Amino acid sequence: MTRSERHIERQRPSFKKRLFIFLFICISTFAVLSFYLKSIIKIEAPQKDLGQKVIIQLPSGNHIYTYENLIVKENGRLYYKGERNTLDLTGGIILYEEWDD
Q: What pTM was estimated for this model as a whole?
């Protein structure tokens, strides 16, 4: 067998080429699946029932526009409990009126 015959017989793809093709297929499959699953899976926050719209008239004359379920009466005091803060509204008068957003 001559040198040229040996060379002709060994024309299989190299290991690096096979590895590159395998990695490319794996990455492309992962990308396609992630886009597909993101379009299918939707996580939505539950709807909160905030109650009726109210206006609280403070003794200083200021008005606070809020919802009924965010107002709490504890120990004879009136509190506004929002997501991140709590305000003391003692002495305020609750008016059940519609207000614009």
A: 0.52
